[in-house]
Amino acid sequence: MTDGPSFFNLYRHNFARIAVAVPRTHVADPSSNAKETIALMREADSRHAALTLFPELGLSAYACDDLFQQRALLDACLTALNDVVIASRDIETVAIVGLPLDIDGLLFNCAAVVHRGRILGLVPKTYLPNYREFYESRQFARGDRLLRDSIALFGQSDVPCGGALLFRLEQQPLLTFHIEICEDLWVPVPPSSFAALAGATVLLNLSASNVTVGKADFRRELVGGQSARCLAAYAYSAAGYGESTTDLAWDGHGVVYENGNLLAQTQRFLDAPQCLVADIDLDRLISERMRQTTFGDTAHTHRDACARFRTISVPAVLPRTIRLPLERTYERFPYVPSNPALRDERCREIYDIQVQGLVTRMRAAKVSRLVIGVSGGLDSTQALLVCLRAVAALKLPCTAVIACIMPGFGTSERTLDQARRLVAALGCEAREIDIRPSCLRMFEDIGHPYANGEPVHDVTFENVQAGERTNHLFRMANQYGALVVGTGDLSELALGWCTYGVGDHMSHYGVNASVPKTLIQYLIRRSAQWGTLNDQASATLLDVLDTEISPELIPAGETGAIQRTEDTVGPYELQDFNLYYLLRFGYRPSKVAFLAWSAWHDATLGSWPDLPEEERHAYDIGTIKRWLGVFLQRFFGGQQFKRSCLPNGPKVGSGGSLSPRGDYRAPSDSTASAWLAELEGVPNEDGGV
Questions:
Q1: pTM (whole model) above 0.70
Q2: Active site residues
Q3: Angle, alpha carbons 556-561-564 (nearest 5°)
Q4: Of 159, 183, 245, 536, which is most buried, counting CB atoms within 10 Å of its CB?
Q5: Confidence of residue 603 (pLDDT cuts 50, 70, 90)
Q6: What is the pLDDT of residue 689?
């Protein structure tokens, strides 16, 4: 171990671990509640959480009702808070605990921020519910009734207090948190909305929140929705077992959301203390705020409200030097939902988007026929399925799709057979053209050595074949008054793995342009499994999935070895992962490598939707670094000119599109040097720093 930050440490990569604590409550017994609180603080600290959130009025219990008017209870709560403060001297986590606190003759429902033997701030509850089962106005004053902005407490003369407080960690400025209490979230404009506009990335809610039927679902919607609107993380802790059940019940529901996504939640109705942790991606939140420019516009509109916030510095020391992997799961296939039901729904929706785009283009162009090159590989198979759905939507026969099979010098018997079987099974109009004679004529015309029998398999040899195929498709489209449908996918566009101007780069409309390779594999698999195709078509689709990915432009060698795409550009399953996090969030290469390592270093971790055991892979950090370097060079260093003149095609998902008219605009003359230099900090071995 070195004194510097470890690469395999979540805090190095702008993650922050926060804990949601749900202690067992002892009604009107602050001493016992303090012990419960301290025990959970120590547990959260042992798990290296930067923050630990406790429930509303956790030092007293929420359901004390008129006991809050008893001085003995209030004094005991102060003593309990002091016990927590003293215990915090050797605990690094920042604790946010709830208690009743009287200030200037008024009683407030407060949250205290405790760290290393000090109280960093006090935040009173702003909105007090006084309806149905709630009678808080009977005991408490609203937070805006507070007449001062600091108080003296436990020997501290200047403890900040008020609702407009932000707390920023000195060692991680991206972690700025704001506190609101229970009902504050349930009002039309929660205080956390303004706090987020003022810079808070993590929103914390101390709650009691009794349980009724269906309330847990509503809580999730409320917390998730606020985190999404505020482009923030939102942690929520509610009271659990031990609260008074005189008239109410409690489920101890704690949740953590990040920009609308549920990261973790407690087990409800558990008769035991709980300490839930979640790793927040601060980079993601900042990235989303930068991209969603209306967030900044809203902050400007409410600049007077934002200006009222004070920022408190938090001197917490983060554990950066130890090996501290994520407890959060990152899916290996970010474009493919791991949940089977959601994946099935997503596949249907993607087909609908692709088909709707193609149908609209056919109507606009006033054509009733489509021309497509079919190779027996993944991309052309997916595009062919879309074409058939499109003509069906227009009530045209399958023969409106002219499927052209064009074997060349590297075409294998396997893919040629698959192309023929697929076209026959789907009922398209089939055309087969051997492009080798026209390629030989081109070789003769340009003086390429292959015309004289020399086995020169250079880029010219490959691109002449790609060009001849495209030339035939466009001329056939002219002949039949049809559109040429492109087959190239998002992964190939990202890697520049397409032949400029001809080949899979050019078409009248590219239905796969924003669909990555890993997603195409699952779309085809679902088409084979849905039962909407005949048995021969479904069987052929499964054969296509089992075929090695290859452009088949170079003949197989003497050993029968074929041209493998992934030997050159890297494993698509890994490159699609890299593409998602670089394109969608603009992360540093080192962070992408850390996420890839978190997802891929152990083949037993996470979900592998529909993949058989023998197809499940693991990648060490050295392999991840190597292929990420290939991705960076190909994506940022010289292939943009191909993406700058893409044919039209529908955007499918929020994971990104490379259309110069849509999601992605970039110069064609940039280099990858900055990204490759940053990648150098990634170790070459899993045991590295």
A1: yes
A2: 56, 125, 182
A3: 95
A4: 183
A5: confident
A6: 44
